[in-house]
Fold these 2 entries.
Entry 1:
Amino acid sequence: MDRVLVPVGEPCPFACTYCYTRGGEIRSARIGVKDIIHQLVTFAQENNFQTIQLGYDGDPFARPERGLALLRELVALGKDINFSTKASLHDNELHALKEIKAALSSHGSILSAIVSLSCWESADFLEPNTPTPVERIATLTKLMSIEIPTFIAVRPILPNVSDEEYERVVSEGALARCPGFILGPLYVDDEGKFARLISDQILEQVPYTQNKIPWSAYPVSWKRYEDVDRLIRIGKMVEHKGCRGFESSATAMTFLRSKNGNAS
Ligand code: SF4
């Protein structure tokens, strides 16, 4: 096993319209920091893994105290840590992250981040309560300034967002010296809640498979919408701009480890 997903354990307030974390389908909405760490430590006693990924059920920096408390506890496990965020980060949080990074580095582990951008001009409509794309690029720039490698997750790729808009996302990320872009599918529940702002006519044109969701604590099965031709097209556009594209966070983490000479 290469990586373990660790929850934030509280609902995310940003309310992106395509978000799948907010209905409690992937795990119970509230778990205390101590319980999260206890479960992980127990798991780590019997399982070997390289990377901890924080933030699959919410945004750890929607409430920065929560994200920092979790990261400080996670350092003791001596693993590489990656966190995902759309939040704006301020000086005190960056200072704390710098300390966490130094503590991890002291035993040869890496702290990295992912900032998510699923659109640019459509953000007012699709992500009305979330920090703007410009603010998220600022977060990426700040994290890179303290030498935390920060990828951009273009995930989900949304059928109602144009290729031109994704070109803007990649151009802005490239300008900010983002080390790579993680491209990913759209998951939609049976009732279509996660795709409520996507018209049926548009969604019908995208191929999908029905998938059991491995990161859910429950037996959940959703539709995974993924237009492979479009994925390849966007991947080529990423490369054309001199950047790297990754098919998953796991491959981005592997790249980072090999770059740091820690490939396992
Ligand atoms: S920031 Fe992430 S977890 Fe929070 S609402 Fe948006 S997609 Fe969901």
Entry 2:
Amino acid sequence: MKNIIDIHTHMAYHALYPEKFLEGVMSHKDENSLITRKRVSLMKAFLRDEYCEKMLVQMNNANIKKSILLIVDDNGVIGEADESIEDRYLRHYKILNKYPGRFEVFAGFHPERVGGLDLLKKGVEEYGFSGIKLYPPFGFAIDDIRLNDCYEYANSKKLPVLIHTGFSIEKLKNEYAEPGRIVNVAKNYPNVNFILAHAGFKLDQPLIRELLEIDNVYADLSGFINSSKETLKLVFQEPYNSKILFGSDWPIVNFMEPLSNLIDKVISIYNEVEFPAENALENILFLNANKILCGE
Ligand SMILES: [Zn+2]
């Protein structure tokens, strides 16, 4: 399996993220704050991959041909990251050019960002970004009318839109990322393929299965290590196999673990499926993502 596409990654560089966000990701319930702080400083020491060099080594070891880097626009709602959103866009643009063919970038958008739509258009039209990433827990719902301009633009350019769904961290508006909110949005913007992040390993939930029956709704597998093997087996079967995309969420969730481990896990679960769909593994690891990225 050589052509793997990872639809859900972020740069492992600390300056792109607000301190409070890293703290939230690294803190465990009921833990004292000293331990959390220690873990955050450990993570910051790890998050020094300014130009994706370490990530590329991991990708090569895991046979990942291409990764989609997602920019998150947090709009400073829990404090500013060290690097401005404009500089984050520029950094991702440089990476696209430095390693042709190895990455694609989905531009982060926040509806309250002054000049956000212009920045998004610059990302797509000047920098060559090929999709949009939304992070509703930072203060807007998936079906917030303030996203209409963004969705309209995505629809006119046939850009895929990847949306964080489900719980993020304490203190954020997690209810805004409730995946059921996609129903009307998906109907209103039929040229957009919507990817529900972190929903692909939740096929035990009737709501997720129902949403995946909508033509232009897909889901990624990022975070799947939290799911049971029996639930994960469903992704290799009809009728959902063509709607699920492999995503690692590198480096946020698995920062101590090589990417190749995640691929190995996916393959080992596939090997236990009795009646997989045709091309089931290839669909999950690259064919479905490839179709979306090619705008089909
Ligand atoms: Zn993510």
